[in-house]
Amino acid sequence: MQESELMVRRIKEGTVIDHIDEGKGLQVLGALQIDGRDGSLITIALNVPSGKFKKKDIIKVENKFLADDDTNKLAVIAPKASINIIKNYKLIEKRRVSLPNEIDRIFRCSNPDCITNSHEHIESVMDVMDKEGRVLKCRYCGRVLDVNQLKYN
Amino acid sequence: MNEFYNKDIISIKDYNKDQFEKIFDYTQKIMNLDPSSRREICKGKTLSYLFYEPSTRTRLSFESAMASIGGNSLGISDISSSSTQKGESLADTVKIMSIYSDILVLRHPLDGSSRFASEISTKPVINAGSGTEEHPTQAIQDLFTIKKEKKKIDGLKIGIIGDLKYGRTVYSLLSGLGNYDVNVHLISPESLRIRSDSIYEIRKKLSFTESTNLEDYIEDLDVIYVTRIQKERFPDEEEYLKVKGSYVIGLDLLKKMKDDAIILHPLPRLDEISNDIDKTKNAKYFQQAENGKHTRAALLGLILNENGF
Question: pTM to 2 decimals?
């Protein structure tokens, strides 16, 4: 067992989000609306030494299994992250996050004059222009979003 | 079937050089036809317009274009007299207007409004200006005018001057020019430089320089495209006053231009081009406005006729 894993308590059922880009752990928590209000155990480790990326953040959250929207948010905020699904203390699935071709609903367009920010009944659609460079463009107003200043619906 | 049949015109980014050339050919065909043949092209068809922002040229040129090819127009040019004032959504208004007509022309202050409308409408939608985002039919008339006046677009040196931040015609024109091999110089006050978050695709297709000094480039330009400072889009009047009148094309500057340079402007103009330029051979902005009628007639004819005309 690696030193980094010893630092946080094991979970029985839930998700471990590993290899989160250093310093992005709290942003991931906010984006996935993981706030502990449901009483689940949440463990967060920031700036954990990691051979692969020098430092990383880790989140362990009990009784939560990420939906597609959560995975997409994660792919934008922390593209190197991996998702580990834990059942009965055992790792049953491990997957890397990857950006889809389009992301619906979850991000708000940063342009206040975009029709998606009006009172019209319309949901945002972001086209992923560059998966590696994480370039997202609003399908409606055509503006490119700053991935470091995303707002969520 | 012609490729424009029953299609929306939302963004100039959706078109390539071949398609522009086809539109130019059909525009020339419209111009060459005798009036009675022209009136057969859209006989019995109805255009509806929905203008949430003031307009003179664009709305009237669509009406005039539709009349010239035998169609009718109806619509709302003053939104204060419509059900929008009662709180009706754009979606509902578009749905109703598309019932009453064969094609819908929309101008709206919000970016992305036309794309949204096209998803709602049962009839083709033409974007006649969406916020600071796009004005595709203006770009088509601009490109047509350049081609007509200079006999080519490739190889030209083009200066775009003025309000590059808020002027929607600029973004559409740049996207259109991205299909050609041109040298573009963008000249604006520092605070009105082009929006970097709106030119992701443009940067891939078009190289351009940015400057605040028109005089550095004026002698080399083949096309001088002047835009109005968009007072109504400034969040703060004081900011507008700082840049008002930044560039004025007058006879003194004209002397420094190439003899055969052309001056274009999407209009309306305020003080960017002095009136004494109007009668010079270089002033082409009124022809540009006239060309807008013909390019729009060609587009309407292509969208509304399965086999072209």
Answer: 0.91
